[in-house]
Amino acid sequence: MSGHLANRLRGFDTMVTPVASWNRLGRFAERGLRMSSIAVIGLGAMGRPIARNLLGAGHDVVVWNRSDGPADELVAAGARRAASVSDAMRSPVVFSVLADDRAVTETFLDSGVLAQAPAGTVHVGLATVSAGLARRLGAAHAEHGVGYVAAPVFGRVPVAEAGALNILAAGDPGLVDRVQPYFDVIGSRTWRLGDRPEQANIVKILGNYLIACAIQSLGEAVSLADGAGVDSGQFVEMLTSTLFPGAVYAGYGSMIAERRYRPAGFTTVLGRKDLHLALDAARDHDIALPVGELLRAVFDQALADGRGEDDWAVIAEQQPR
Question: Among 121, 137, 128, which Cα is nearest to 179's?
Answer without folding.
Answer: 121
